[in-house]
Amino acid sequence: MRKILVSGCLYGWHCRYDAVDCPCTDPLFLKWKQEGRLVPVCPETFGGLQTPRPDAQRVAEKVMTESGKDVTAEYQKGAHEALRLAKENDAAFAIMKEDSPSCGSKYIFDGTFTDTKKAGQGCAAQLLRDAGFPVMDEDELQQAQKTLCRLEANE
Ligand code: SF4
After folding, report:
1. Pocket of ligand 1 (CB under 6 A)
2. Is the N or C terminus of the chain more exposed, i.e. has fewer CB atoms within 10 Å?
């Protein structure tokens, strides 16, 4: 049975920066959870940050809070932990929370703290993709299911 790396907040952990929970309740996601396929990771808390924590955004190669604190090291540490878990579990792919500076896979906030998004990816999503793990978000579960069926049919 192939494993799927998932964002901890989608899995149901209380780990979002603003302490507002956002568990994924899609029946397919819950079925995978029941099957024991899901490997949760929260790159930001695994990187040593607390919940709640200051909002942070990618600014060029760094990750900064709105007050100007550089939290790049924590974000990178968490991203490497996500990659370690993906490798250790031979994850088929990852399903990561959209728009996050760690987990976002299509869009992220643009670093101006004006609620403006731009095309881009979070630190963990980028590291996973660079290592060859496909990254999707919670709106792409049907596509993920097709990928899973194809992979398992070929095994
Ligand atoms: S770092 Fe990822 S898993 Fe953790 S709260 Fe943010 S979006 Fe969710």
Report:
1. 7-9, 15-16, 42-44, 97, 100, 102-103
2. C
